[in-house]
Amino acid sequence: DIVRELETCCATSQLLQGVRVLITAGPTREAIDPVRFLTNRSSGKMGYAVASAAVNMGAKVMLVSGHVALDCPTGVSRVITESAADMLNATHEAAKQADVFIATAAVADYTPINVADRKIKKNAATLNLEMQRTTDILATIKQTYPHLFTVGFAAETHDLMTYARSKLERKNLDMIAANSVADGKAFDQPTNALEVVWKDGHTSLPEMDKHALATALMQLVAAQYLQRKQPTHDHD
Amino acid sequence: DIVRELETCCATSQLLQGVRVLITAGPTREAIDPVRFLTNRSSGKMGYAVASAAVNMGAKVMLVSGHVALDCPTGVSRVITESAADMLNATHEAAKQADVFIATAAVADYTPINVADRKIKKNAATLNLEMQRTTDILATIKQTYPHLFTVGFAAETHDLMTYARSKLERKNLDMIAANSVADGKAFDQPTNALEVVWKDGHTSLPEMDKHALATALMQLVAAQYLQRKQPTHDHD
Question: A-side interface with B, Cβ within 8 Å?
């Protein structure tokens, strides 16, 4: 049965043998001019740890990453992207070959409407930067590839669980991993904690090293992914 | 005479023995909310290379740096700063103990007027980010400590020399090192080229490794600094 199969697979750590896992990680950069850009405090550490954990479980891993100070994990195929639009394009392309999609990247929600092709001079005392919404990578990919087992991340300063459950439903995701970023928590730190939420369950993963946390998360992902792929038949 | 003294010093590479050199380097980060910030493409490589070159010439070097992916050079005393305001404070404090000030940092010219204490939600289709001018670190430090031999950097996409000469005069600097950042040139690259301008002269340093370039620049700085400190007396 599925339980015994899971136990056997877990024991050999090859639960995701042959499964193609696509992961986005790190921040995006939205150019204001040739020199300046908008970004965020994501170090990419959590996403890279998830990529390593997936490789260790036998998955074929593709990583679409923003600029980070991290080396590509062994066995992972990586592409570096700049803006939210670049990351969407690269993810779109890679998603064609994926079974599981884990969106850990901290993607810009807004991007400048006008990008100056010369460095903006500081003549004025004030500057108004007009921005518009970027395309939502997570929602777009799930809409385009509904078969993809899709895991979102949510970094919130407040109302963690409420926001996580709402995001799961709104974007039709299979799982959400939510973490608190209040007081700079999680960003560029070696440890993190996650609230993991799916349609009919949730688990709290307490604060631990990001690599241990990534392994625990990938075991939850694998369990839910395999359960969906091979549903139990009570009456068989 | 001064020429022989320079030659002797150059030969022993200890031209700046006992001289206290303060260097700013890297980008600043202007917070929009607890997660997002505005920054720029400076890697800090040029400033860190200048710090190493100054140490190698016998200087006592203090480095006020933004967040970069570089280790502190051997023999250098470093403080890491976040925003333009933080960098100004740290530089102000360090300048009290300095003889030479070299401002290589890429400091934000504008900073958001209102910093949100919660992560901004992406409810609206557009977002207007209102920003105001930051305090000019280079000009402020030179005004406060007029005795400081002060070297500015200028990264420009266009009209390099015109802008460099104008900045030298406007900010009452002793020297300007200008480089082109057109087409992403200079940023995060191992090589660079500089136009070095002072009151009564200028030199072009052609494209070379940033460490070689930093040494060539520091030799120009040392020559001008020592000449001013010990002016030649033609009639002696």
Answer: 32, 34-41, 69, 106, 108-110, 113, 118-120, 122, 124-133, 155-158, 181-184, 187
Q: CA A46 to CA B26: how far, in whole Å?
A: 25
Q: Which backbone phi and psi does A146 adopt, to 5 degrees? A: -65, -20
Query: Which fold is adopted by the domain B2-109+133-229?
Result: Rossmann fold (3.40.50)
A97: tokens are 């070959």
Q: Which residue has the tokens 């052609």?
A: B206
CB pairs under 8 A between A and B: 105
Q: Kindly report the nearest CA distance between residue A200 and chain B, in angstroms.
A: 27
* CATH code for the structural domain at A2-109+134-229: 3.40.50.10300
Please tell me whether residue B128 adopts helix, strand or coil conformation: strand
Q: How far apart are CA A225 and CA A41, in angstroms?
A: 30
Helix, coil or strand: residue B133? strand
ipTM reported for the complex, 2 dp: 0.82
The sheet carrying A191-198 orders its strands as A77-80, A60-65, A20-25, A100-103, A149-156, A175-180, A191-198, A201-209
pLDDT in tens, B54-93: 999 999 999 999 999 999 999 999 999 999 999 999 999 9
